[in-house]
Amino acid sequence: DQAGLDKICPSKPIEECAPGGFRTYSGFCNNVKKPLWGSAFQAFDRMDRASYNDDISEPRKSLNNSTLPACDEISRILFNSYEKKKSKLSLMVAQWANMIYNDMARIGSNKNEHLEQLDCCGADRNNTECLPIENFYISGKKTCIPYARTMPAPAESCSLGSRKQSNQVNSFLDASPIYGINWMKKARLDLKTNGFSSDYNINFNPNTLNEYAAAAGFFFYGLLPEKIVTKYSETKATPIRDAFYNPSLLYEQHGILNLIKFLITESSLIPIGQINNEFRQHFLKTNNHAGFDMMAILIQMGRDHGFHVNDIDLVIMGFLEKPADGAVVGPTFACILARQFAKMQRGDRFWYENYFYPSSFTGEQLSEIRKTSLARILCDNVKNLKEIQPFPFMIPDIYENSVLKCSSNIIEKIDLTPWTDSKFSIKLPMTKEKIKTAIHIAEGRIRQIRSREKKNNQPDIKNDLHDFLPFPHGHHMKPNQIAIDQAKIADVLLEATRILIIQDEFNVHKPIIPELDIDYLQNILPNIDVRDFIGKAKNNNEICNKKPFPCDPTATYRTTTGWCNNIKSPTQGMAFSTFRRLLKPAYNDGNNSFDEPRKFGVNGDPLPSARHVANVIHKSKDIIHKKYSHILMTFGQFLDHDLTHTPMSLALDGSLLNCQRCDSHETVSVNCWPIKIPKNDPYFPSTFDDGSPRCMHFARSLIGQLKLGYREQMNQLTSYIDASNVYGSNDCIASDLRLFSQGKLNISKHLPGIQNTLPFGFKDPDCRVHSTDCFIAGDIRVNENSGLMVPHILFVREHNRLAEKLFMANNLWSDEKIYQEIRKIIGAVMQHIVFKEWLPKVLGHQLMEKYELYLMKSGYFKGYDKYCDATISNEFASAAFRFGHTLIRDTFLFMDPKHNTLMEQIRLKDMFFNITPLNDFNRGGIQSMISGLIRTPAMAFDRFINQDLRNHLFEFKHEPFSGMDLPAINIQRARDHGIPGYNSYREVCGFKKAKNFQDLLDVIDQETIDDLKNLYKHVDDIDLFPGLISEKPISGALVGPTLGCLIGEQMQRLRKCDRFWYENDITETKFTPGQLSEIRKMTMAKIICNNSKNIKKIQPNVFDLPDNHMNKEVDCSVLPDIDITKWLDRDFCFVGNKIIQMGRTKHITPCVSCTCTHYGANCHALRVESCNSLFDQFSMAEIAADTSCVIQCSGMINSKKNQTQ
Q1: Which end of the chain is more exposed for a tag (fewer CB within 10 A), N or C?
Q2: Catalytic residue among 282, 476, 630, 641
């Protein structure tokens, strides 16, 4: 009767499952085709058909139809002995297995019509749903275990058939230590190390296996001891029987802590046919009942569920089997467990590694989840747990699983930043029309501001010396047209942000959005899509800044701009992108902090003038470094110009702003923020001749963000170490620097005193007004000082030297191919020198190891992370990487090859924008400058900065007070960028945040602390730059701990986040093993030797001063050089005087053969199977000349030699 069946068991199909992002509590609709699969109250699945006596429901009997042995008797006979054999697994394995079981399976007993428990040992004994276990003895007394049959469940679609048991929870949730690695492989249960999983099978039924739920899933009981032993003030042993339904242990002093320590430090037992008496006699003991025999119950349950294993019950043999290799259970249970977890993993649409929208995690979120460990969960959630082993499922040892502090970085923490809510539209009434209105108002306001500034008598900048005097250094910090166009868009977006947040008097419309928390707005505004507005904005620079899309993952070479280095996020690290931040900016717009420079301290008091801070903290004091040479500083500046260039704001007509007047913010431009000269300044007058206050010119950095929200500054360069200072960061500059012949760069050959130098030009007007000759290079600041020009010249020469060799080796290659390949090599050499020679001196071994910065000695680097972002941090660019200013000497020495000083020293202030020292015959030119740089010491790392940088930066000769103050500019620049104070970054770097000035004594000396205390009202007010370079160097390093942290963090990302990093093992971009070996040979000393005609001897490590013991000078010829033949593009290989065709193998000697591959010749010594056969094939002379043959056949060789004598 179908109608009657439908009434009892409704089978109306579910028409549709919504593709939601989250699970339902019941598991319903996990599978959109089969919505009930895996959900609560569904029937368990089976590995084998059910075995019932009547093929429907009646519990099974023996194969000969006799009654099966009594459950309690089997338990008593087979599980009576108990040996405490311990494993290396901790007891946490058992507890975890128990928790997983409870998540995946719950077996409920049948009840009577009143939904009450059946009294199967009493009034309901004869109920067909009762299977009591009679004759159970406990403490010598006969009793009964009231087993009621498991609640049945209807079959799918309410079809007829044998009895099925109900799972009262849903079936969804690596348990490899349990069932072993072999079964893990068989069931394909490996977790991904990166990326997403595509293993989900919509036709895979995830219902929990009956065999797991009623047998194998209970394996953990065999791992547990008889007592729980906790230790605090005294040792306490609690029998397991007293812990059933009794949470009192948790409420004792340090109860949870004591239990967790017990679970992670005590060994679990090896369950070889044993269950301790606590479970055999006192299972589920209460105050009113002595307990039951758990094994008897499990045996009865297996019979109730129709498990068929001939006569022997499944649970019995499962517990009695010897553990499989690498597992704690035998092969049968291992098989069941592996299949169960395979079902759970591949049948779960919400499995965390799956990529299905809308329930999938993002790649960044998945990367963070993979950091999860039980150790971290316990550390974060167990009060007073201070240390733990990394793998709590294993007992601690003194090796890989030795106990660590919970604060250790080895126990990784999840960063929740990737979960930042970007679905602003759900919480905020921010429609496209409202955004459009805000932008429209912002455009009008920007027009008003520009119109006002146009009337402000901004002087016309001409190519006359005196027109440049108020702001002598501005042109080489000038933005190019790409940056200017981007800033125009950013200005409007920043103004729109102001309107949305402040809604001040300029906005005469009704409020665009309701009043909301400012921090909340700041979090959501950057996520609002403004691409429509950006797309309409004028941009005429696509030729110079190409962005082909989609990205080509097979590209061999970098783009000039850094575009598509990261395939997933093509703009990351790209030129003209904004800096990233380690901390939220600390702008000072009152409560609406998103734009104005940091002007006030934490108590609301104005911060001291940047010049005043520089006068007190950064006064001149000559202390030289005892170990490091001056070229350490020079190379550091060269590296900085490969990574960061923050352009300055301009006047409306594209000319430089004149921000020297103290009121220039009001009278000239909102982007003027001059530095006040304090009274009694040791050098600069505090007033002009007319008595008006005097300030130092300072223009704010150009705005660059293409989104709503905070003011963000722009980096004109790529973030990567890619030698962009040599080649340029956009296609137009790169093209200007090329010769377009044989892959070479342009050079100038005819400057007296310098051969093969940089090409001439006047792209930097600052140089033009100082000097008759100026260089052009990949970075406009090349002319900033004579010393900086040196590495620029050396690396251009090295490019052309290698290009010439590569052209001779591969003369069929095009100019483009040679140029790109040498550019790739030079970029790799730069990376190698930075990380191998320069960075270890700056950071020291401790920080190099902490940030994983040591290079591979052989093989490839496997650490590339496509989800990380190499973008330079604002803190790094505006403060941390300016540390080199303290290393600069105020005089430069010129030396001949014999270390004799030539002529007088030259002052630093006379080297700004001046190339004449490089071709000065009296001083020996560039060769003598190089000798001086590598043989004279740098200044010590401290807070003191020389007077030429403090008072004479970029000054004009014969024009008093026309110079600038570099440390003051550094301080003002960080404030301009909204960089929080130094104390905030101590906390970022894992150090204790100072509560008062004296708390800084751990890293800063008392005299400096006193100076800081006299300047700042609060310890949180200390600016980042003076704070960083006031730190005492850590042991083995040049810099202090916080500065080392900021540099180390950035350098770690420059390595791990660069798809073209030279050590990477990425098929499309990697060097061959032979080529990589050649790059690893290169040193800065060899670069100098290769490209300096008169330098014949040099110390191997040029960043250290020469030392007769540790760094003795050697002949340049001793230093290894790149063998360009590793880049030969041929269909054959040369090995000695023999040629091997590509893909072929050939004997080079009798006992050595080589195979020609695309990576070069791969040679191996052969195993000689028969020395007699060897002599049949080769002559005595050939064999004797082959070491491999001699080693294997020495006896026969000697015998034959004796025969011929």
Answers
A1: C
A2: 641
